[in-house]
């Protein structure tokens, strides 16, 4: 695809933690483009730099070198109101742990109203839109009057997805959003994401350590190893003909290996979910 179609353009990205001689470089010259309407899965073992990349994309970490352009905006250069606008309307993150990211004193309706309109987080004013989004993530409209602790982990993740998508952002970053869920609930969430991707033509970076999950949801896959992108190609091509030795080793990994897995159970559950939806 041409560069004009790229919503995300990452070029020569270095990121360090700490200062001076005690600093540690975590990302090394990362370059990655994501086209409009494309989901790129970012996969790698713990410590490979996936979460650091996500934090740099949303602007919570500043690169020591290189640029992150999202929808034509240099993420590290925006300040004040422009930064808030970027975080709300252009870029949203769906977190790994929705329970810690949801205010326990706010109802689900308040959480969604605030995401939709931070200045006027009025549930009554936005009731119809909130109800519509709850329905989209397969939650009942009456959930808006309840609190996060009243729901299961899978239900809270559905709320987190609705909260991330309700502002209709240009880009969505999903960071290990199924890792804390059991296999059957993971399958439900992945089927939900698949439907929303198609319905909304989402541009998404989907971060995971699980190859089976990434294979189900991604158009392309970027493999990270020791802070570098060592391979990036269409999903089918990467799984059928991996080029980098590290990618090859991941695909040979024994299911359930700590820190990385190819879980066939997820694929089976997802297939069942898709048949049920059809």
Automatic annotation (TrEMBL):
Leader sequence segment: none
Membrane spanning segments where? none
Give the species this sequence originates from.
Arthrobacter bambusae
Q: Which CDD domains match?
A: ABC_NikE_OppD_transporters (cd03257)
ABC transporter domain location: 10-251
Q: What lineage is on file?
A: Bacteria, Bacillati, Actinomycetota, Actinomycetes, Micrococcales
Which SMART domains does the entry mention?
A: AAA
Is the keyword Kinase assigned to this protein? no
Family statement drawn from the similarity comment of this UniProt entry: Belongs to the ABC transporter superfamily.
Stated name of the protein? ABC-type glutathione transport system ATPase component
**Keyword field contains Chloroplast:** no
Keywords in UniProt for this one? ATP-binding, Nucleotide-binding, Transport
Q: Which Gene3D superfamilies does the entry mention? A: P-loop containing nucleotide triphosphate hydrolases
The protein's matches in SUPFAM superfamilies, at most eight in alphabetical order, are given as: P-loop containing nucleoside triphosphate hydrolases
